[in-house]
Structure formats: C-alpha cells, structure tokens
UniProtKB/TrEMBL annotation:
Enzyme class, spelled out: lyase
Entry protein name: Probable D-serine dehydratase
Keywords: Lyase, Pyridoxal phosphate
Gene Ontology MF terms: D-serine ammonia-lyase activity; hydro-lyase activity; pyridoxal phosphate binding
EC code: 4.3.1.18
InterPro entries: D_Ser_am_lyase, Ser/Thr_Dehydratase, Ser/Thr_deHydtase_PyrdxlP-BS, TrpB-like_PALP, TrpB-like_PALP_sf
HAMAP family xrefs: D_Ser_dehydrat
One Pfam family cited in the UniProt record for this chain: PALP
Source species taxonomy: Bacteria, Bacillati, Bacillota, Bacilli, Bacillales
GO biological process: one example: isoleucine biosynthetic process
The family this protein is said to belong to: Belongs to the serine/threonine dehydratase family. DsdA subfamily.
SUPFAM superfamilies xrefs: Tryptophan synthase beta subunit-like PLP-dependent enzymes
Keyword Flavoprotein on entry: no
The reaction(s) this protein catalyses: D-serine = pyruvate + NH4(+)
Length: 434
C-alpha cells in the first residue's frame, strides 16, 4: 500500500498528519475469551513470571533496602485523585461519570517508572537461569544468597545489553550492575543527559547514537549477537518483558478489592496506558484482559507526533509501518514515548483485545502535569500524563458509561532530578497561564 492508498483507506491518517488529538476505536476487538485463544501468550506464562518475582523478593529486599518494608515486592500505590478529577472536568468543560484513580508507577521502587516491572523481571530471569544452569541455585533456595560476593563474581562473566530512550536503560542498568553483570546501554539521541550520567556513575557502559530509538535497539542487538556471553534485552520483541509487565494486573486486582471497587458488567473498568514501543502498556493490558475479560477496556495513549502503535494497529501493518511513513517527525518531550515504529509482537498480541488508542500533544501533557502537581501534589514526567485525557476523549465522542472506574496509568517520574522536574512544572504553568 502506498501513502495515498493508506490515506484513502484510513481517513484518520489525515487528522494524525494535522497533529490533532484523536481517538480511534478498534474495529477488530472481539470478546476476550475468543481473542485470548488466538495468541500464544498464556495465563500460565504470566503466573510463572509472578512466581519468579516472588522467589526473588528475598534477594531484592537485601540488594535494594528500600524494598525491605514492602518485603521485596516491586509494586506501586493505586490512589484516588478527587481534586484532579474535578479540575480535569472544569479544565476541559467535560463531565464524565465514574471515579478517577491514578496508578502510581512513578513511585515504583528501584527505578521509578513502569520499566521497573518488565525490565527488572527479565534480568532476574536471566540471573536465575544462569545460576541454575551452573548448579549454584535451586528454585527452592532462599534467593537472598544471590546477594553474596560469590554470585557477583559469577555474574561478572556475563554481560547484558539493551537499546533504550532512557527509562528502560535505567532499569536494566541499575539491576544488572547490582547483580555484577557487565552492562551496556545503547541510548537514542533523545535520552536525557542525567540518565546517562546516573548510569555511568553505576559503572554502566553508555553508548550514544545520533539517531532515534529504533537505531539504538538495532545497533545494540547487532553488537550483542557477536558475543555469546551477552544477553540482549529486546524491547521490540521480548516475551519476558511482556509477561513481567503483565504481573501488574493481579496486583491491581488485589488493590481494587482492598478499595472495595467492584469490576463487573455493571461496573466496567477503563484503563489508559501511555504507549511507546508497546511492551509495558501492552503487557499490563494483556494481564488485565486475562483477569477481567470483557469488563475491562484498555486504551493506549501516545503523543500526536509519535502515534506508532495506533498507526500499526489501525492499518494492520504493525512493525511494517512507521510514523515517518505518514510524515510525522517523532519529536516529543515525552520520554519513553518517542518511538516511531511499534512492536509487531505486541501489536499482534493485542489486536483483538485492545479497545482503542488516542493521542495527546505535548502542550496538553505539560498542562496536565501542572494541574496534577497543584491539585494532588503528585509530580510525574510528561509521558506519564498521556493517559489523563482518556476519560475526556471518550466523553467527547459520546461514550458515556455509568459506574465506571477510570485508571490513569502514571508510568514514570520517580527518578527525575528535582531540578529537571521544576523545569517540567514551570513549563506546565506557563502553558496554563495562556
Ligand atoms: C517506556 C515508557 C512508557 C511506554 O512503555 P513501552 O513499553 O515503551 O510502550 C511509558 N511511559 C514511560 C514513562 C516510559 O518510560
């Protein structure tokens, strides 16, 4: 299909080219029971990941003492944000029914973003596999022993590599260095200086590219292939990352029960997930569909300049199309979302499960950042606000649901230095004044 044919078949493309904030409803969505039969990722695989994270809890509480009070379980709070909810309605002159909750992955321990789920999980899996293979560990052992010098020595014989716009690199770099692995992070041109500095201070090798995320991943993959003791974390294709993210769903279910929030046919759940290459939001959405089936409606949120997943899903072309193909420049301040080409694996796994996808421009993200800080005293990085416009977008299009619970997934911000955060906040306030 050439560009003109594409634009003819998918009229929304012209709105995307005009950088409008749009919402797309997925016409290929079917009931989740049938959809789940068409994919190879299973509930057992997610359960296996959950069990592995439990096994590692005794290691994590030693290696990262800040996780000791939560017994080595990497999880974030789910909170009500009533003041933001009313401010949001006022700001957009749009009312919506139901309660607004924030899932605070910015507060995840170890690396302060959603990448502390999948990214850390995949490194734990590699470490376990190596140690078991060499008869140094049994799955019935107390994994706290992995925090000893003997293991640091052992892991230093192996290396880990990853390509990243920043946050995945931070997660993988921090956990890998802690184990003793040699670790290389291939960073795209948009990665922030403080992230490179922080990683280098931990002994991580940071390789910088003048190109975007896809090139950083490709180069990383190429270099890792040459070395058989090197494990490459493939953000575009990794099933391990995906199932690591999916574990979030069962944890969320428990939190909803503790809040006495019901999810059923009369009380649907709407979840809005900022999306870059797709692994994080796709994994979480997948886990939620496994648990809540047709009672949960998951939406991806992307910057107007980088709507790669929306484009891939809508056209069915997945990783075979990039936002450059429709003339978008993939430039956004939303770290982690500056991805021009989606994961084909994630797109194909979610194509019958996801409810839709919407876009948001950088200015709106900054405004929401300022509003959330002022109303709830919660500071997020710009990407983490991408989902906040979700309930507004749905309402504008006439989707009105009663008794709904809306969860905005706040994907990051916990590691942003306060000086940088101040700049984000000021920028938000500037936009709000206009
Ligand atoms: C990585 C990231 C996302 C998106 O995750 P993907 O797996 O790339 O789709 C969203 N928000 C933040 C803050 C991120 O770092």
């Amino acid at each position: 299909m050439d560009k003109q044919q594409l634009e003819g078949r998918f009229p929304l493309i012209s709105n995307m080219q005009n950088k409008e904030e749009i919402i797309w409803f997925n016409p290929n969505k079917i009931n989740s029971e049938d959809a789940l039969k068409n994919v190879f990722v299973t509930a057992e695989m997610v359960q296996d990941a959950s069990d592995r994270l439990d096994r590692f809890a005794s290691y994590l509480r030693i290696a990262f003492p800040e996780t000791a009070k939560v017994k080595g379980i990497i999880e974030s709070p789910l909170v009500k944000i009533p003041t933001m909810e009313s401010t949001l309605k006022e700001f957009f002159h749009t009312d919506f029914d139901g309660e607004l909750l924030l899932k605070c992955d910015n507060a995840l321990p170890i690396s302060g973003s959603i990448k502390a789920r999948g990214g850390i999980y995949e490194v734990l899996k590699i470490a376990e596999q190596l140690a078991i293979q060499e008869n140094l560990l049994k799955i019935t052992d107390d994994y706290g022993l992995l925090a000893t010098e003997k293991f640091t020595q052992f892991f230093s014989n192996y290396s880990i590599a990853v390509g990243s716009t920043g946050n995945l690199g931070l997660s993988i770099g921090i956990i890998s260095a802690k184990f003793g692995f040699q670790v290389t992070v291939h960073m795209s041109s948009d990665a922030k200086q403080w992230k490179k500095d922080m990683l280098r201070a931990k002994g991580v090798i940071v390789v910088e590219y003048d190109f975007d995320y896809s090139i950083a991943v490709k180069e990383g993959r190429k270099q890792a292939e040459k070395d058989s003791s090197c494990f490459f974390i493939d953000d575009e294709n990794s099933v391990d990352l995906f199932v690591g993210y999916a574990v979030a769903a069962s944890r969320l279910k428990t939190q909803l029960e503790q809040m006495q929030t019901t999810v059923d046919a009369e009380n649907p759940l709407f979840v809005y997930l900022p999306c870059g290459v797709g692994g994080g939001p796709g994994g979480v959405a997948f886990g939620l569909k496994l648990l809540f089936g047709d009672h949960v409606h998951c939406f991806f949120a992307e910057p107007t300049n980088s709507p790669c997943m929306l484009l891939g899903l809508m056209t069915g072309l997945h990783e075979k199309i990039s936002v450059a193909d429709i003339g978008l420049d993939n430039k956004t301040d939303a770290d982690g979302l500056a991805v021009g080409r989606p994961s084909g694996f994630v797109g194909k796994t979610l194509e019958q499960l996801i409810s839709g996808s919407f876009t948001i421009n950088d200015q709106t993200m900054y405004e929401l950042l300022g509003l959330l800080a002022d109303t709830e005293n919660i500071l997020l990085e710009p990407s983490a606000l991408a989902g906040m416009i979700g309930p507004i977008q749905l309402t504008r299009l006439g989707v009105s649901v009663q008794n709904a619970t809306h969860i905005v997934w706040a994907t990051g911000g916990g590691m942003v230095p306060s000086q940088e955060m101040k700049v984000y906040y000021e920028k938000g306030k500037q936009f709000l004044k206009k």
